[in-house]
C-alpha cells in the first residue's frame, strides 16, 4: 500500500554510498514513484562537492541499475542551491521537479524549506550513520585509508575508479585550509 504517488528525496551524493541505497529502498516502499534530487547541482570540484552534476547523475544511474532498482519508478533531477538569502529554495525545488506529493529528508534546512512551500516531509531511519557518510568517505580517502571502498556499491566504486576519484579528492584538498 502506497502513502502517495510521488515523493522527492534530495541528496548531494558526493559520493553515493550504501546509506543512500537504503534511503532509496525505504522511499520506494512508501510511494509509487521517487524523484531523486541532486542537491548543490551547480557546485563541483570543491572539497564538499568534488563531483559535478553529470558525474553524480551517471553514478546514481549505474548504482540503481547495479542494484536492480525499478528504473521506471525513478527520475533524477538536478537542484541548485540558492545564491542569495532572498531566494526561496523550496520554490526553486518545486520549479524543477515534477509534481510531488511529499518528500523524505533528515536535513533540517531541506525539511524547513519544503514545508514552507506546503510539501509534507517525512524522515528516513538512519542506516549505519556512523559509518556511512560521504564526508567520512572523503576523509578516509585523504588519509589514504582504503576502507572507503567497502562503503560504496561495486558499480559506484568502478565509476569512481574510472574518474580517479582518490587523486581528485587529494588534489582538491591539497590546500590545508580546505576540508572534505
Structure characterization notes:
With 180 residues, the protein is α/β, with parallel strands linked by helices. The chain contains seven helices and five strands. Helix 2 (53-66) packs antiparallel against helix 6 (154-163) and helix 3 (89-96) packs across helix 4. The longest helix has 14 residues, at 53-66.
Summarize the SSE layout with pairings.
Elements: E1 4-11, H1 18-30, E2 31-38, H2 53-66, E3 74-78, H3 89-96, E4 102-104, H4 108-116, E5 120-122, H5 134-143, H6 154-163, H7 165-172
Parallel strand pairs: 1-2, 1-4, 2-3, 4-5
**Largest sheet report:** 5 strands, parallel
Q: Spans with pLDDT under 50 lasting ≥5 residues? A: none
State the helical fraction: 40-55%
Q: How confident is the prediction overall: mean pLDDT? A: 93
Adjacency order of strands in the biggest sheet: 3-2-1-4-5
CATH architecture: 3-Layer(aba) Sandwich
The count of DSSP E runs of length 2 or more, i.e. the number of strands, is 5
Beta percentage is 15-25%
Radius of gyration: 16 Å
Assign the CATH superfamily.
Answer: HUPs
Distance between the termini: 40 Å
CATH fold name, please?
Answer: Rossmann fold
What class do helices, strands and sheet pairing give?
alpha/beta
Order of helices and strands: EHEHEHEHEHHH
Task: Work out the count of structural domains.
Answer: 1
The number of helices is 7
CATH class: Alpha Beta
Name the shape in a single word. globular
